[in-house]
Specification:
The structure is a single chain. This protein is an alpha/beta fold. 65% of the residues lie in helices and 10% in strands. It contains 19 helices and ten strands. The chain has helices spanning 3-8, 15-32, 34-46, 52-101, 104-109, 112-163, 166-203, 205-210, 214-267, 272-313, 373-379, 403-407, 424-428, 437-446, 450-455, 473-487, 503-517, 552-557, 561-587; strands spanning 334-342, 348-357, 362-366, 388-393, 396-397, 410-414, 491-495, 521-525, 537-542, 545-550. Strand 9 and strand 10 (545-550) form a beta hairpin.
Length: 589
Amino acid sequence: MSLIKRFVQYYKPHKLIFTLDMIAAFLVALVGMGYPIITRYMLNDFIPNQKLDLVIICSISLLLIYVVRMFLRYFIQYYGHIMGVRMQAQMRSDLFNKLEKLPYTFYDEHETGSLMSRMTNDLFDISEVAHHGPENLFIAGFTILASFIYLCFINWILALIIFACLPLLIIVTSHYRKQMRDAMRESKIAMAKINSSLESSISGIRVTKAFTNIDKEQEKFEKSNESFVKARSSAFNAMGKFFASSQFITDVFNIIVLLAGGIFLYQGTIDIGDYSTFIISVNMFISPINQVINFIEQFQNGSTGFKRFIEIMDEEEENVHEGNKICPPLKGDICFKNVNFHYKSSKQILNDISFTIPHGEKVALVGPSGGGKTTICHLIPHFYDVSEGEITLDGENINNFTLDSLRRQIGIVQQDVFLFGGTIKDNILYGKLDASEEELISAAKKANIYDYIMSLPNGFDTDIGERGVKLSGGQKQRLSIARIFLKNPSILILDEATSALDNTTEVLIQKALDELCKNRTSIVVAHRLSTIRNADEIILISDGKIKEKGTHEQLMKKNSSYKLLYDLQFRESDELEEKALQSNLKING
């Protein structure tokens, strides 16, 4: 489907307003023809023949017509913009819905600030074109045609001389229009980079202040800002050439009228009244041409924005790869069969991964960073498609399940907890939106955060700030755990859920995690003993391959890579854990 057809679709819900807007635009253009017509009668008849009463009547009539035109213009401005805003809102809803359906791979390659730029700046430009485009082109087109016919009626030879200059104007504008379009696209890309830089800097302001790197962030922002200035300078250069050359040609129109009309007047082929009317009417012919020329900048902004909008709308959705079977309540048997995986245009991440986790068991994934542990966790809820092999749950390939029904059976607690702006209650209920008050309280108690919530003046209605900035790391983590308790999944994935916490806090949270793991199949990605030693099986992942498998005791008896990793990385952590546990016991007396 062409861009124009896709754009026109957004007019369909607003047919009535659009039709009335076009009628109003037609009447405005029609009324504009009244002035030169009345002027010609006055100059050729009423004034020379001293028909003062007709002069007054025509003047009053023209005033009344202009009053009507004032209300018509109000209608066009108000309801036209309302239509544009509603179309913009619909596009924004469509874009948001699309973004919600796009796969992880899309967000791996696109920055948040860039997407925000498309959601705001681009859609605003589109809405302006949606409103002004049809009415400007309609008014201008009608006025050009009507005024040309009227010019021919006054003096057809002079009118044809003027009309002969139009091809030159079309050639010049077409030449510079392409330059302007390309420059506008580059400037929008540069604006998106500014938004990305700004979003990153504001989100990381606490890190910036902690490392006293304000100058560095300023430098990064100024680099993006400078790119924007260069892109806009290029756009303005193309725009300047476009407007200067086109305006020059329209100025030539006036010179031609002055010269040719003067010759005709001198030769007696036109009288002074018609000549004066012709000059007025030529301005009516030239003005809409200038209006179209001026509109082209707005059109280029809007068309570029719509193309960027369509780019996202045409992205392949995540649910394209989902099955059509509703995932039933799972026991939790997990099986990886010769799974290989690589991201787009990247090296192999997982190589021939095979393992089985019986339902109700806890398996720990350990190994060096970048080995593929988190990738394994992301494949189970089908965030990514496997490159080769298959993953089954209770013997059924996950590709057969719908994504929503599959993910309802899986709970994930990550190291980097994401909380939404709002209240504590809002964030816990994210695990089950229709949960009762009793379920909410029960989840908070199981996550060991209920007492803290009750100590706050507003309890569950306490606002936690953007991304939970008013909470400590441990409190955020316990809120995320409460969410999972409320969700009550069959399979639990703990992706380094406690690695960012201090040892004392970890001991408290680990109790909640142990409670959470009961009677569920659990996969734990961790490097601390508290989440590894009691696992039913430990799998060492390195370079995308399984190096070793076994219980903690079995692996420690071997001269294995796991034992070496334990000796180097875990022994000190173990000692700190014991001290933290003893300290906590003393505190709780």
